[in-house]
């Protein structure tokens, strides 16, 4: 079957956010008084707009989002934004003109609304021209909402291709057939009727979703099963429950984390790698023949392979899928120092800049480890929901280096999943700070 058409849809929301920031700042410059519109004011409205948009999910607009929901987001966003603008203007009483502020808000409202509805209309009608992703879907079950959902998904405006429908999904045969088909045909999303579906079966669908990185969406016939683990959306007038992933899957959050990654990696590359790499290159070449950098394919986000960079710390050998152990004879003298201080990992800031990794996240495992533990450890594959990191919560808690027992990997996964489900910028900064502290203190399993 033809694979999912990957395109530029992931850039639409970040681009809209940037366009909105340009608009509110440009309008402020043109409409408001010179004394009010200072550098502080521009910083204030930029931060205010960003924080409010995160709280009201202003940029969480999809093809299936209803007009009334978009209007609701606009009202919330501008109500709070208006209050903050008037609050800031209060510091400039002699220059404050309430009418001018009101005109500024109205012009912003008109401009932002026009941008939002223009993009929404383009997504609905011309998504294929924008290289928007087409998601392949299957449906399991029957019922009134399932029949209505079928009509919705067959409408190209929603960006889906409905590939096949299966039975009720409450038998092992139906589930096995659907799971096999989804894996074989590269299905992106499974819509499952919750009618007559036991909690055990629901858990099996959830485990399939986590293990194979597929999106499961449940379609209820009533509202009895709603709880905090689900996010409610409407496809047309059909309620659909999506399993909540994490805040890291929200477009604006991803953009903030990506911006931090770019700035942090550029700082390290310019001020550290620029002079450290030539020095280490000489030492590495003096001790052993071979390249300065070691490159190896590792599973990244959605288990897609990327080339992971490191300073070469071992003699050239053919056992690259075997992780380093204590007193490993393959490790060179300079390599031992680099591994002890984690300097060998620094080239991965190039991976961060390229977008394959993040500064903080689950460490990228070997492919052999994925094969060995993917089916044995529950929720192992959840770590592939996000980009791998140069450092991570599991590493600063001591679960780094060689995996000697299953318990070592279980503990590592426990911290990886906790990080993914409880991410915050503060948590990232704490992990980075602890990583630096651990480097200077020395780590037992850094070899």
Automatic annotation (TrEMBL):
Record membrane topology: Multi-pass membrane protein
InterPro entries registered for this protein in UniProt: Bact_transf, EPS_sugar_tfrase
The keyword Transferase is assigned to this record: yes
Regions crossing the membrane: 12-33, 39-62, 74-92, 98-119, 262-284
Pfam entry (one): Bac_transf
Cellular localisation: Membrane
GO CC annotation terms, alphabetical: membrane
Principal localisation: membrane
The keyword Kinase is assigned to this record: no
Keywords attached to this entry: Membrane, Transferase, Transmembrane, Transmembrane helix
GO MF annotation list: phosphotransferase activity, for other substituted phosphate groups
Record domain Bacterial sugar transferase: where: 257-440
Family: Belongs to the bacterial sugar transferase family.
Protein name: Putative colanic acid biosysnthesis UDP-glucose lipid carrier transferase
Source organism of the structure: Flavobacterium caeni
């Amino acid at each position: 079957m033809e694979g999912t058409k990957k395109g530029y849809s992931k850039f639409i929301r970040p681009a809209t956010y940037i366009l909105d920031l340009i608009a509110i700042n440009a309008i402020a410059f043109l409409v408001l008084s010179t004394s009010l519109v200072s550098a502080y004011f521009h910083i204030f409205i930029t931060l205010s707009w960003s924080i409010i948009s995160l709280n009201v999910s202003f940029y969480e607009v999809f093809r299936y989002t209803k007009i009334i929901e978009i209007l609701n987001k606009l009202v919330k966003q501008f109500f709070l934004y208006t209050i903050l603008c008037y609050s800031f203007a209060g510091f400039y009483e002699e220059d404050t003109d309430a009418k001018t502020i009101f005109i500024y808000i109205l012009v912003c409202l008109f401009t932002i609304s026009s941008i939002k509805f223009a993009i929404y209309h383009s997504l609905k009608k011309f998504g294929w021209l924008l290289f928007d992703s087409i998601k392949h879907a299957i449906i399991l079950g029957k019922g009134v909402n399932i029949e209505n959902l079928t009509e919705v998904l067959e409408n190209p405006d929603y960006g889906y291709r409905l590939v096949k429908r299966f039975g009720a999904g409450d038998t092992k045969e139906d589930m096995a057939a659907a799971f096999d088909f989804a894996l074989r045909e590269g299905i992106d999303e499974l819509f499952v009727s919750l009618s007559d579906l036991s909690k055990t079966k629901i858990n099996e669908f959830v485990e399939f979703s986590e293990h194979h990185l597929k999106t499961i969406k449940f379609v209820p016939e009533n509202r009895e099963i709603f709880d905090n683990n689900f996010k409610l959306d409407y496809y047309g007038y059909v309620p659909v429950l999506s399993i909540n992933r994490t805040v890291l899957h929200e477009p604006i959050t991803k953009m903030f984390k990506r911006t931090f990654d770019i700035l942090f990696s550029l700082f390290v590359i310019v001020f550290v790698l620029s002079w450290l790499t030539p020095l280490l290159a000489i030492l590495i070449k003096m001790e052993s023949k071979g390249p300065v950098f070691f490159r190896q394919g590792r599973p990244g986000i959605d288990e897609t392979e990327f080339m992971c960079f490191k300073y070469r710390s071992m003699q050239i050998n053919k056992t690259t899928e075997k992780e380093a152990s204590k007193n490993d004879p393959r490790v060179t003298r300079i390599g031992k120092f680099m591994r002890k201080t984690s300097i060998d990992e620094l080239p991965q800031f190039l991976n961060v800049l390229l977008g394959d990794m993040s500064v903080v996240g689950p460490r990228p495992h070997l492919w052999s480890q994925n094969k060995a533990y993917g089916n044995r450890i529950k929720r192992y594959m959840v770590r592939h929901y996000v980009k791998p990191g140069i450092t991570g919560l599991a590493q600063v808690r001591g679960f780094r280096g060689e995996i000697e027992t299953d318990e070592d990997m279980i503990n590592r996964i426990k911290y990886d999943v906790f990080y993914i489900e409880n991410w915050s910028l503060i948590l990232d900064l704490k992990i980075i700070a602890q990583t630096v502290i651990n480097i200077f203190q020395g780590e037992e399993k850094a070899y």
